[in-house]
Amino acid sequence: MRWIIPLLACCLPAGLAAHPHVFVDTGIELIFDDEGRLTHVRVEWAYDDFYSLMLLEEMRLDNDMDGVLTEAEEGQLAGFDAEWVEGYNGDLVMRLGGQQLELSGPLEPTATTEQGRIVSTHLREVSGAPVIDGQVLSVMPFDEMYYTAYEVTRPVTVNGRAGCAIDKVVPDIDGQLAQMRAMLLTIDADADLEENDIPLVGEEFATEIRLTCPVS
To answer: In whole angstroms, what separates CA 9 from the centre of its chain?
Structure first.
């Protein structure tokens, strides 16, 4: 299993200890049209140093190891993380008034490097272009399996609307770990995890961005 972080390793049934394999600093741009409707979200992913190095070597990019790509290399790298299998949600869940919004697949992918780290962006269309006045828009980047750990450390911005408030809600990691630890201690080492209804923890460890805008 890939969804338990190292702090739980001491409490897991034998053979289940695991942790995130990829770490991504995330940025979000929420894009509104002239009528105040939410039409798109642009997502920025900055990959950790190790994953970036591994991928650049695999793709034979940045051969001079200076951490800077040529224009041609950027073109070759762009879209490497935008070829999604059917059903993949892009590790992003957006809800308006508690109802999940439907998002398109990735559009306009870009990629570059910053001090050796790969930084990519992609655009997604928000189905129905909703008006969010009077409601809370929730944006949560996470991998439900917790194979990839997302941290919202890069800018969160609003394009096309003024006066909107952005709140970042950081999860209670210690509390979630305590609950998970207590649950795991009740499970036999040879137990079937699916039969024991073990939850996916990615959302529990996710940072939530909440956007509110004044009524236009």
So the answer is: 24
